[in-house]
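Allow me, if you will, to draw on your knowledge of protein folds for a short while. I have a record of one protein: its chain in single-letter code and its fold written as discrete structure tokens. Kindly check, if you would, that the fold set down in the tokens agrees with what the sequence suggests. Thank you for your consideration; the sequence and its tokens are set out here:
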Amino acid sequence: MIAIKGYRQGLLIVLSGPPEEPWLTRLRELESKLNANPGFFRGGSVAFDAGAMSLSEDDLRRSMALLAAHEITLWAVLSRDEATRAHVRSLGLADRLEPASTAPASGSSPDNSAPSAVASSPHAAPAEEGHADATDGLLVRRRVRSGQVLRHPGHIVVIGDVNPGAQLIAGGDIIVWGRLQGVAHAGALGDDQAVVCALDMSPTLIRIADAAYVPRPDEIRSRHRAGSAETARIEDQQIRFIAWDKQLRAFE
């Protein structure tokens, strides 16, 4: 079973199961998940948690090649097996999760404002395959600037604006307590019940699961003039926008 965890440095892919199970079997399962959700992983850096499995250098090289083919960088492999840790170090990979100030950060920003909270722990029990725990989320208290990417398997909450050219990619919901002008991809691991909420909805692109919406310039202007908070969700296989006050009544 494969579980995806969020933590301060980025994403941790937990490959759990019987230690005697062939590593290639797990890589095939991982490849299937990468093919099913390419937009969530592409361009990111990830760490593996291999548990007690004994991996050879060839196993690790195959893992790196698979991820590289999907434009993903493997930077660390956690293992309880000493021989595996030796192979990891010989390939120039980290064998533990470094402090956020020194480790690569998939989806983190290049400035000095680190995400303020990541609910999941790298060593917590794996979530249900392909899904993040409902309480798992990333809280960011700052403006997300152009060129920055926030990527998390759970929910993403931004208290601040999201500028044009910025990207939010979440396995769950996205909530922006500010103006959303960049790209927001909620339900990026296939959850078509996910939503995108913003106080000022002026996105370049909204995606929920596999559905996509690119607003016309006149729609962006009219929505900005209205100045009301909105929720984007999938209805009848299309992304539709609902005023926040109407959304609240739907929850009653």
About this structure: The chain has two domains: 2-90, 117-251. Confidence is low (pLDDT under 50) at residues 100-135. The chain has six helices and 16 strands.
